[in-house]
Amino acid sequence: MVILLSGIDIVGYSLLGILLVANFSIAITVVFVERKKPSTALLWVAVLFFLPIFGFLLYLVFGQNIYKERIFRLKEEDDHIAKTLIASQEERLSRIHVPFEDKAGDYLNMVTMLLRNDGAVLSNDNTMEVYTNGYAKFEALMEAIAGAEDFIHLEYYIIRNDTLSRQITSALVAKAREGVTVRVLGDAVGCHGLPRNFFSELMDAGGEVAFFFRSKYLHINMRVNYRNHRKIAIIDGKTGFIGGYNIGDEYLGKGPLGNWRDTHLKITGTAVHSLQVRFFMDWNHAAGADLGFDERYFPVMEEREGALVQIVASGPDSRGEAIKKGYLSLIHNARESVWIQTPYFIPDASIMDALTIAAESGVDVRIMVPCKPDHPFVYWAGFSYLWELMESGVRVYTYDDGFIHAKTVTVDGIAASVGSANWDIRSFSLNFEANAFLYRGGVPATLKQIFADDIASCTEVTPEMYGQRTHLMRFKESFSRLFSGIL
Question: Which residue ranges form the domains of the chain, and what is each CATH number?
């Protein structure tokens, strides 16, 4: 018996030794190879050495960037080629005279920054519709699909195997049989529940389907890093959709979270060309194709005066964190109000400082988040930051009528952003996102009014509630915040 126990001990010590060596190797990689931010690197090293088994598993799922540079350097090269191919469109758009009137002129520097940082061309001929109800949004999308004459391009993070997805797919099949070019781009993880034959009928009809970051890479980065989180659609190069809705019954309020409150835009105007560019770049990378950027995909728009729009994209293949910089610029330009809606709120130090400075300067800063978590760990970590901001005068609301998934910010009712990017570190640097930044026109004021209307379905979280939290809740928030920099 003693010999047997000794053997077990030897095996146990050997496994522990192997694990410690592996953790030490990972720590070296984090510090000297991946060159993460100092605070993130220090946190990973602490987790790996103080929680060896848990830290090792956590790193496999959330942390590793193995081959990231090689994988996305190829995408950067593809994107550069794409931007070169459409230089004529960008040059033409950049020459448009945009009369920034009144307070909208305060955002000229921001527009220039996003143009230089992300190549986000400003267009001034757009009309927009705002959807906060899934039925209305998908009815508009189905109507646009039914009216398509040349092509339909859809790019969504999640496509479910359910009634709504099958309805949209059936509509795409019908258009493909009419000779309309149909391309659907999903994310390999977001669409992992789809049967292998889900798009068979569409492909048989001549449609094309691709998935971003397919399984051949998933063994490298497991499941959560570098996902294509964008939700955009382009029909005939004239109509585009961008926002927070994925495709599935839950976005009609039929899921376990109940009523689904989200925000999406329908855009008609030259900003649709920028959505088209983004789709082409993602499609060429995911499908290994070269669509060629034919003029067919960029029809000349009727000249008119409309809303000012920049389509801004960011992801791990870009260095600038353009959407986060856009958020920061909006906050810094605020004179009266900054109203934010987001399902996930895990800001970095720059966002925290900007919101704190704004609130302490007398700007009316409000943040609306869900009352119920779909990712508890993230939810609890988020509240640890919200409590801190309340000390600076930020007002916080929890949305009680189901789940709020909108990713919006409106500043002074003059400028705004709507898209796929949450206010968290994952959206800022680890996922591929796309947002529309809006200046002038009626949409920023409309979004502010929508926020005000949503307050009727909210509970305001007060500083008094902070002291009334249970010890268990305090523990959840503190523990979750420890790992917020790496999740």
Answer: 2-64 (no CATH), 70-96+128-304 (3.30.870.10), 322-482 (3.30.870.10)
Dump pLDDT digits (tens) for 245-283.
999 999 999 999 999 999 999 999 999 999 999 999 899
Going by C-alpha positions, the residue among 388, 120, 131 that lies closest to residue 273 is 120
Tell which wins on pLDDT, 481 or 21: 481
Q: What is the pTM of this model?
A: 0.83
pLDDT value of position 5: 46
Residues 104/445, Cβ–Cβ less than 8 Å: no
Query: Which tokens belong to 232?
Result: 């955009």
Q: Exposure string (b/e) for 356-383, b if CB count within 10 Å is 16 or more?
A: bebbeeebebbbbbbbebeeeebbbbbb
Contact 420/243 with Cβ under 8 angstroms? yes
Instruction: Answer yes or no: is pLDDT of 99 > 90.
Output: no
Which residues, in sequence order, are bridge partners of residue 397? 368, 460
Strands (E) in 213-255, as ranges, are 231-235, 239-243
Which residues have CB under 8 Å from 191's CB, separation 6+? 158, 159, 211
Q: Residues near 205 by Cβ (< 8 Å), separated by ≥ 6?
A: 173, 176, 177, 182
Q: What is the mean pLDDT of residues 358-371?
A: 97
Cα–Cα separations (whole angstroms), residue 409 to 81, 153, 180, 329, 337? 32, 27, 36, 12, 10
Name the DSSP letter for residue 429.
I
User: DSSP readout, 75-141?
Assistant: HHHHHHHHHHHTHHHHHHHHT------GGGGGGHHHHHHHHHHH---EEEEEEEEEE-SHHHHHHHH
Residue 15 CB neighbour total at 10 angstroms: 11
23, 55 in Cβ contact below 8 A? yes
Count Cβ atoms within 10 A of the Cβ of residue 22 and give its class: 0-12 exposed, 13-18 middle, 19 or more buried. Answer: middle
Calpha distance 187→208 (Å, rounded):
14
CB-CB contact of 153 with 276 (8 Å): yes
E-strand stretches of 198-306: 208-212, 231-235, 239-243, 260-261, 264-268
What integer pLDDT is reported at residue 465 of this predicted model? Answer: 87
What value does the mean pLDDT of the chain take? 83
Of 22-36, 204-218, 354-368, which one has max mean pLDDT?
354-368
Give SS3 for 56. Answer: helix
Residues labelled catalytic: 229, 231, 236, 405, 407, 412
Long-range pairs, 93-100, Cβ under 8 A, ≥24: 93/121, 93/122, 93/123, 93/270, 93/273, 94/121, 94/122, 96/122, 96/123, 96/124, 98/122, 98/124, 98/308, 100/308, 100/439, 100/440
Is the per-residue pLDDT at 139 higher than 70?
Answer: yes
Higher pLDDT, 430 or 9: 430
